[in-house]
Specification:
Radius of gyration: 40 Å
Structural class: mainly alpha
Order of helices and strands: HHEEH
Largest sheet: 2 strands, antiparallel
Strand content: 5-15%
Helix content: 55-70%
Distance between the termini: 83 Å
Number of helices: 3
Shape: elongated
C-alpha cells in the first residue's frame, strides 16, 4: 500500500503537534512523582549507638549507684570494730564496708591491668614475627 503525499504530510503534522503539546504541558505543570505505597518504603532501623550515648548511660547509672551508696552510708553510721591482720580499729559500719568494696575493686583492676599488659606484649611479639 502506497501512501499519498497529503496523507504523509497529515501524519507528520499530527506527530509534530503531539510532541509540541507534550513539551508545552511539561513546561507548564510538573507532574509529581508517584509515591510508593507505605508498605514499599524501607523502614528506618534503630538509631546507631555511639560512644557518647554509652557514656551518658554510664554517667546516669553511676549517679544512681552513688545516690544509693550515700543513703546507705547515712543510714549506717553506728561504729563497728574492725580487725584486720592484727590491727584493731573502730569506724562507722558503712565506711568500713565502703573501704572493703574499694579495696576489692582495686584488686580486680590490678589483675585486669596485668592481663591487659600481658596481652599487649603477646600481640607485639606476634606482629614482629610476621
Amino acid at each position: 500500500m502506497a501512501w499519498s503525499a497529503p496523507t504523509i504530510r497529515a501524519m507528520t503534522h499530527a506527530r509534530d503537534s503531539k510532541h509540541a503539546a507534550e513539551e508545552t504541558l511539561g513546561e507548564a505543570t510538573e507532574v509529581p512523582a508517584a509515591r510508593p505505597a507505605a508498605d514499599d518504603q524501607p523502614r528506618p532501623g534503630p538509631p546507631k549507638r555511639t560512644r557518647l550515648g554509652g557514656t551518658w548511660v554510664a554517667v546516669v547509672v553511676a549517679l544512681v549507684v552513688l545516690t544509693f551508696l550515700l543513703i546507705f552510708i547515712l543510714q549506717n553510721l553506728e561504729n563497728a570494730t574492725v580487725h584486720f591482720l592484727g590491727a584493731v580499729g573502730s569506724m562507722p559500719l558503712a565506711v568500713a564496708m565502703l573501704l572493703a568494696a574499694v579495696a576489692g575493686g582495686a584488686l580486680v583492676a590490678l589483675v585486669g591491668a596485668a592481663r591487659i599488659l600481658q596481652l599487649r606484649a603477646q600481640n607485639r611479639k606476634s606482629r614482629k614475627s610476621v
